[in-house]
């Protein structure tokens, strides 16, 4: 049986990130160096998936694994996935205590309903908009009922960027698609994922781009706690020593 041809955009993404892997890893910030709001969102996701607990977490498009390792240090049972073998290799060498594999968004290496969380952190913008429903449907397939998704990335008014060089002037052939936040939220909803929160940040300078983070969950499973329930003291009697 003949295997279907690999989409050209996937080849472009893999070859580009293989070419820039070392420069990218050297330039991208460690999560501890991010701005307070970005760190707070990662911490909120970590707490949410730890509390929900329906399964492990997969960081899709993990690059050199810095965010994956950060979540692991926060007590999240997480693994990383990237299309670039060189990126995955850098991640394994830098973070030997975390599992990293090579793969794509549309074929996550996990059983149906086996993940407690999916993190897509600045990694879906290379996917052509017409294929995002398939990507989000794959996230839905992989998540357990009640599983959480955090998706973050640059947003725009539908810009289609075609850079030729990046990360130290290395040649690249990938493309980037900057969609409006409402469209991304609508695509997540169309895939059966309930958006529970979103945060849109304007560009900090003329050289930066607007970004957005979306928190979503797959319906079913334990009901999420409300803010009031998080703040309410426990009524259970305290355990006594002795």
TrEMBL record:
Transmembrane segments: none annotated. Keywords: Methyltransferase, Transferase. The keyword Nuclease does not apply. PANTHER family: METHYLTRANSFERASE (PTHR42912), N6-ADENOSINE-METHYLTRANSFERASE TMT1A (PTHR42912:SF93). It comes from the Bacteria. GO terms for molecular function: methyltransferase activity. GO terms for biological process: methylation. Pfam families: Methyltransf_25. Residues 57-147 form the Methyltransferase domain. Residues 214-242 are annotated as: Disordered. This is Class I SAM-dependent methyltransferase. InterPro entries: Methyltransf_25, Methyltransf_Superfamily, SAM-dependent_MTases_sf.
